[in-house]
Design a protein that fits this description.
The protein is mainly α. The chain is 55% helix and 4% strand. The strands form two sheets. The protein has a two-stranded parallel ribbon. This is Lipoprotein.
Length: 362
């Protein structure tokens, strides 16, 4: 899976002593404390099971059933994930459960400090400006503003000097270690930093410090002295503090072959203006052999993540629907082929691109 990090040029100057990549004492203690992590939290398992059922109901066009599953799921967790609350709001809107929709929207507003995306989707299309303003008037802050601001600065520190690896690589990596140790410190005191403390981001997916986890997992893929994120993320997922799909992705990046097949199961679409819609809209999936497919599903079940068949179903729904539901398990790559290709060349390129994949079939 290809990840693109948008580099922000910052004016904030952060000084730190250049140093090599090493595990600090806090890294080591975190590993010692979390060497074993078994999924025995029945409430959290129920939450993930119910939200998955809700998403499958959405794909089947049964929005009332989706709403009921979300309502049941939200009883199982201290604070539901932003993407799930958002999906519940849309489901309740489409099922005409307006009182429940209003509760969902108020929860989203209370836990967000950037409401531009949320407003652009709901206002005018589903609700009027007056109702939106009434939600804003009733808004109460339901997250730790101080901690949220600190974790925004963690993101800024992470991005400082990227991508100037030739001249600032040591400083970039020193900043990453500082950030990772702060994440571990917070995790030791209040639990892994999550939507419970930090609220929801504008995208309703992930948190500012997730970029540090991305870079840590990528560093570990080539240097096993870097901290292993698995026990940390395992505990966070089991406590309802971290999305299982993100955990699967970061452990995939770590590339520890002995840990098993952490398959993110990206979907692909290849498009060209001369190709028929039947090809442009076709969903392609990794062509895993039976052993890898079953191995990936076993690991996903352990982590309360979606099974691969469910991911394919949700990917297909996203390709056909213009309703902007968010399924965190769906990682879609859309490649637009060069426009100057002839039809014959586009067909040949399409055939080459899909030769190692299999088409989605209902």
């Amino acid at each position: 899976m290809r990840i693109t990090i948008i580099i922000i040029i910052l004016t904030i100057q952060i000084s730190c002593k250049n140093r090599n990549e090493t595990n600090s004492k806090s890294d080591s203690s975190a590993i010692t404390e979390l060497t074993k992590c078994n999924y025995n939290n029945e409430a959290i398992t129920a939450y993930y099971t119910l939200t998955n059922k809700a998403e499958i109901a959405i794909c089947n066009g049964d929005f009332d059933r989706a709403s009921r599953n979300y309502s049941l799921a939200f009883r199982e967790i201290k604070k539901p994930f932003g993407a799930d609350v958002y999906n519940a709001a849309l489901s309740n809107q489409l099922a005409n459960n307006l009182d429940e929709r209003n509760l969902n929207l108020q929860l989203l507003i209370n836990n967000s400090d950037d409401l531009e995306l949320l407003k652009s989707i709901f206002v005018s299309t589903y609700i009027d400006e007056n109702l939106w303003n009434s939600f804003i008037e009733q808004r109460t802050i339901e997250y730790d503003s101080r901690l949220r601001n600190e974790f925004k600065s963690i993101y800024e520190r992470d991005q400082l000097f990227r991508p100037m690896y030739d001249t600032h690589n040591d400083t970039i990596q020193a900043n990453r270690v500082i950030n990772m140790n702060r994440i571990l410190s917070i995790a030791d005191s209040v639990g892994f930093p999550s939507q419970m403390e930090l609220g929801f981001r504008k995208s309703l997916r992930g948190q500012n410090h997730d970029v540090v986890l991305v870079h840590t997992s990528q560093k570990r893929s080539s240097n096993k002295n870097i901290i292993d994120l698995e026990p940390i993320l395992c505990k966070a997922v089991n406590e309802g503090r971290f999305d299982p799909e993100q955990a699967i992705a970061y452990l995939h990046f770590q590339n520890d072959k002995d840990k098993g097949n952490f398959e993110v199961y990206s979907t692909w679409q290849y498009r060209h203006h001369l190709l028929p819609d039947s090809l442009n809209n076709k969903i392609w999936l990794p062509n895993l052999n039976k052993e890898k497919y079953e191995s990936a599903n076993r690991i996903r079940k352990k982590w309360n993540a979606d099974q691969l068949d469910d991911i394919a179903t949700k990917s297909d729904f996203n390709s056909r629907s213009n309703i902007p539901f968010i399924f965190t398990s769906v990682m879609t790559s859309v490649e637009n082929m060069p426009t100057d290709l002839t039809l014959e060349e586009a067909l040949e390129q399409y055939k080459m691109n899909t030769s190692d994949k299999r088409p989605f079939e209902k």
